[in-house]
Design brief:
- One of its GO terms (molecular function) is DNA-binding transcription factor activity.
- Keywords: Coiled coil.
- One of its GO terms (cellular component) is nucleus.
- This is BZIP protein 6.
- It is a single chain.
- By secondary structure, the protein is mostly helical.
- Helices cover about 70% and strands about 0% of the residues.
- It has 3 helices and no strands.
- The longest helix is centred in the last third of the chain and has 84 residues.
- The radius of gyration is 36 Å and the shape is rod-shaped.
Length: about 140
């Protein structure tokens, strides 16, 4: 599996737009005031009308900032998706580990029970062999 910024994975994002929106809402809901600049995603056409909201600097740099901001935001979304995917994987593996631990305990108990039964059967076989030897000896002596 490739990391979120891997060039091999860039074209293979399995997430839907709903996943992106939910990841953004989870990310923004943690501290909404911190991400106020993230809300100022501006296309080059809308840039002039929204300058007063996001602030303005140099004319050339102001046109590049929204593009960089949008790229950064997409990167953060991919990172959040990757983290969410890892968290789901961890949850699945933790559930699997607990199920396997229960099965291991059950198998250990079965092993102990079967081991005791095996010892009893070995004793019974030894006793039957002794009885067979005695019976064979008695049979020979009676002959």
């Amino acid at each position: 599996m490739y990391g979120p910024n891997s060039p091999r994975r860039k074209g293979k994002l399995p997430f839907t737009e709903n996943a992106i929106v939910s990841a953004l809402s989870e990310y923004a809901s943690q501290n909404p005031m911190q991400h106020l600049d993230g809300l100022c995603i501006i296309g080059t056409v809308q840039f002039e009308s929204a300058q007063h909201v996001c602030g303005s600097g140099g004319e050339v740099n102001d046109e590049i900032k929204p593009v960089k901001r949008h790229t950064g935001q997409r990167s953060r979304v991919r990172k959040l998706q990757y983290i969410a995917e890892l968290e789901r994987t961890v949850t699945v593996f933790q559930a699997l580990e607990s199920e396997l631990a229960i099965k291991v305990d059950s198998l250990l108990q079965q092993r102990a029970a079967l081991s005791m039964e095996n010892n009893k059967l070995k004793q019974k076989v030894a006793r039957l062999q002794e009885e067979r030897l005695i019976v064979n000896g008695q049979y020979r002596s009676l002959r």
